[in-house]
Amino acid sequence: MPLSYNHQVTLLKDILNNHQTDCCGTVAECEQLERLVKSLMVNTQVSQNMKNILQEIYQYSQTGAGTADLDQHIISHQGNLSQWVNEIDQFS
């Protein structure tokens, strides 16, 4: 059973919040972010503003999944993580 739009957005925010508060994460979480973003990008409920944010999150997750030091990647994006969550709250 696929996740609803609201559940997808909640899961997306949860992973981003965890990265922001824990300053660490896993490749599996980055891959999950990629799948969530792909699914949300084709959803007609998603505004263009939200799609712009999702594109940034997709880049973040792709780079994170391929980096040798994921924790450092997450730490270097601390400002973006909280900003993305705030913007998702605004546009979703």
From TrEMBL:
Lineage top rank: taxon: Bacteria
Annotated source species: Neobacillus thermocopriae
Name of this chain's protein: YtzH-like family protein
Pfam family, one: YtzH
